[in-house]
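Page 37, continued from 36.
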C-alpha cells in the first residue's frame, strides 16, 4: 500500500462471468497497466502514444510473439477511472480458456491476481466513492428485481450519505459548543442552552435517524425478498394458485387429492419485491409414508415463512381440519383465500368470511386467475405495512447501516438523558463524539480494516 491509500502493485482479473460468450473482458489496474498493455498488444495501425479512453483494434501476443486473439483494447489514464489508477481493459472473444491464457500472460509481465472486490476497494481507498456507495455496487450486482436495482443505483449515487450529512453536521455543531464550554469552566455564564440542545437532538438527530431505520426494514425486503408459503387441505387449489402467480403451468394440477407430495419453490417479483413462492403438500391425516414426509416439510416451511397464504375451498363447508391448520398459522402474517369463487355460492363465501371477521378474506379463482391482482396488493400491504415512506425508493440502508444507526439513536437518547439531568459537559461530549464516530463508520471515514475486509470479500473477483 502506498502513501495516502494509493496501492503500488498492479492487479488484473477477468471482469465478465465464467462461460462462453461473445465478449470477455480482462481488467488491469495500477501503475504497470500501460506498460503491460504495450508488451502484449499490437495495434493494427501504429501510433506513438495511447490516447486515454479510446478503443484500439489489434492483436494480443504472448512472449514468443504468437497471436492469441484479435481484440479491442482501451487505456484509461488516472485519475478519471474507476479506481483512480491507470486502468486497461482488453475486450477479447468470450472463451474462458482464452481469457485464462491471456490473464496468465499478464501475470508473467508483473501484475498479480485481484482479490474479490479489490477494484472497488481501491476506488474507495482513493476517495472516489464512500463505503455506502461501494456496498451499493454489491446490491446492484445481486439485485433480483427492477425495484432492487433502482435502490442500489440511488445508493451508488450517494443518497444515504446525503441523508446522513445534516445529522453529522448537527453532531459536529453540538460537540463544538460542548468543547468550548469544557475549555472555559471558570466562566459564570451558562455556555450551553440545555433546553435548546435537547430540542436540537430530537429534531436534527433522532427524527432523521428514526426515518432511516424505518427505511432499512423496507430496503431489506426489496433487497433480500420474502418467503411465501401456500397451505391448505389437499385439492384446495394450492398448485393452481402457484401457476396463477407465476403465469405459467409450473405445478401439476389434477382433481386427485394429494398430487403435490413435496414442496415446489419458484422465485417471482410482486410489485418489486423478490418473492420465494412455496407450494406445499396438502395437510391431512392417514397418508402414506411419502406424503407424510411432504406434509412434515410443508409444516417446517410454514413456520419459517414471512407470509402464509391460507387457502379454503369456497364450495365446501368449514371443517375441523381447516380450523386445526388455521391454529398453526395465526401467529404468522397471513392472507385468507376463499378459492373457487367462480363456482361457489355467494352465501357460502359470505358464511366462510364471517368466521374470520373482522379479518378480510379474499375470494379468488386460482384456476381462472380471478382476484390475483387483489391478492398481490394484499401481500404487498401486509409485508410493507399500510403506510410507506415516499423516500423508500430513494434510500436503502443495509443491515450493517441499520446496526450503526441504532447505536447512533441510543447515543442520542443518552444525550437527552444527560441534558435533562444536568450532567457534565464532559459526559455530553463523550456521547456526542461516540455518535459522530458511528456515523463515520457508515461512510467509511473510520471503519476498522477487518470490517472493510468482510464487506469487500462479498464481491466477485473482477469488480
Amino acid at each position: 500500500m502506498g502513501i495516502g491509500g494509493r496501492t503500488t502493485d498492479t492487479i488484473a482479473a477477468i471482469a465478465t462471468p465464467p462461460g462462453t460468450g461473445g465478449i470477455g473482458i480482462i481488467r488491469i489496474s495500477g501503475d504497470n497497466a500501460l506498460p503491460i498493455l504495450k508488451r502484449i498488444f499490437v495495434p493494427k495501425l501504429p501510433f506513438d502514444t495511447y490516447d486515454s479512453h479510446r478503443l484500439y483494434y489489434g492483436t494480443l501476443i504472448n512472449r514468443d510473439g504468437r497471436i492469441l486473439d484479435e481484440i479491442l483494447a482501451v487505456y484509461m489514464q488516472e485519475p478519471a477511472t474507476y479506481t483512480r489508477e491507470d486502468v486497461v481493459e482488453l475486450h477479447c472473444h468470450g472463451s474462458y480458456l482464452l481469457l485464462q491464457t491471456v490473464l496468465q500472460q499478464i501475470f508473467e509481465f508483473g501484475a498479480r491476481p485481484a482479490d474479490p472486490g479489490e477494484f472497488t476497494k481501491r476506488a474507495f481507498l482513493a476517495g472516489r466513492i464512500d463505503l455506502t456507495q461501494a456496498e451499493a455496487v454489491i446490491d446492484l450486482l445481486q439485485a433480483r428485481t427492477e425495484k432492487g436495482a433502482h435502490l442500489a443505483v440511488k445508493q451508488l449515487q450517494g443518497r444515504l450519505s446525503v441523508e446522513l450529512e445534516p445529522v453529522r453536521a448537527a453532531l459536529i455543531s453540538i460537540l463544538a459548543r460542548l468543547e468550548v464550554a469544557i475549555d472555559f469552566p471558570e466562566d459564570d455564564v451558562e455556555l450551553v442552552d440545555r433546553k435548546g440542545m435537547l430540542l436540537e437532538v430530537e429534531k436534527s438527530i433522532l427524527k432523521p435517524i428514526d426515518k432511516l431505520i424505518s427505511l432499512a426494514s423496507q430496503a431489506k425486503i426489496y433487497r433480500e425478498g420474502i418467503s411465501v408459503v401456500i397451505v391448505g387441505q389437499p385439492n384446495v387449489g394450492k398448485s393452481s394458485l402457484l401457476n396463477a402467480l407465476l403465469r405459467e403451468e409450473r405445478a401439476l394440477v389434477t382433481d386427485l387429492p394429494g398430487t403435490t407430495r413435496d414442496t415446489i419453490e419458484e422465485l417471482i417479483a410482486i410489485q418489486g419485491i423478490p418473492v420465494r413462492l412455496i407450494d406445499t403438500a396438502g395437510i391431512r391425516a392417514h397418508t402414506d409414508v411419502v406424503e407424510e414426509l411432504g406434509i412434515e416439510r410443508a409444516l417446517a416451511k410454514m413456520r419459517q415463512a414471512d407470509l402464509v397464504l391460507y387457502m379454503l375451498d369456497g364450495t365446501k363447508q368449514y371443517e375441523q381440519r381447516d380450523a386445526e391448520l388455521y391454529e398453526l398459522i395465526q401467529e404468522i402474517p397471513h392472507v385468507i383465500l376463499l378459492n373457487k369463487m367462480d363456482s361457489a355460492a355467494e352465501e357460502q363465501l359470505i358464511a366462510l368470511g364471517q368466521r374470520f371477521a373482522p379479518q378480510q378474506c379474499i375470494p379468488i379463482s386460482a384456476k381462472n386467475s380471478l382476484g390475483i391482482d387483489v391478492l398481490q396488493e394484499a401481500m404487498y400491504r401486509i409485508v410493507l405495512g399500510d403506510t410507506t415512506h415516499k423516500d423508500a425508493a430513494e434510500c436503502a440502508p443495509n443491515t450493517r447501516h441499520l446496526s450503526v444507526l441504532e447505536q447512533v439513536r441510543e447515543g442520542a437518547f443518552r444525550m437527552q438523558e444527560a441534558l435533562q439531568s444536568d450532567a457534565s459537559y464532559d459526559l455530553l461530549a463523550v456521547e456526542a463524539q461516540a455518535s459522530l464516530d458511528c456515523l463515520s463508520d457508515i461512510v467509511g471515514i473510520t471503519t476498522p480494516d477487518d470490517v472493510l475486509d468482510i464487506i469487500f470479500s462479498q464481491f466477485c473477483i473482477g469488480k
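The radius of gyration is 30 Å. Flag for discussion at group meeting. The CA atoms of residues 258 and 302 lie 18 Å apart.
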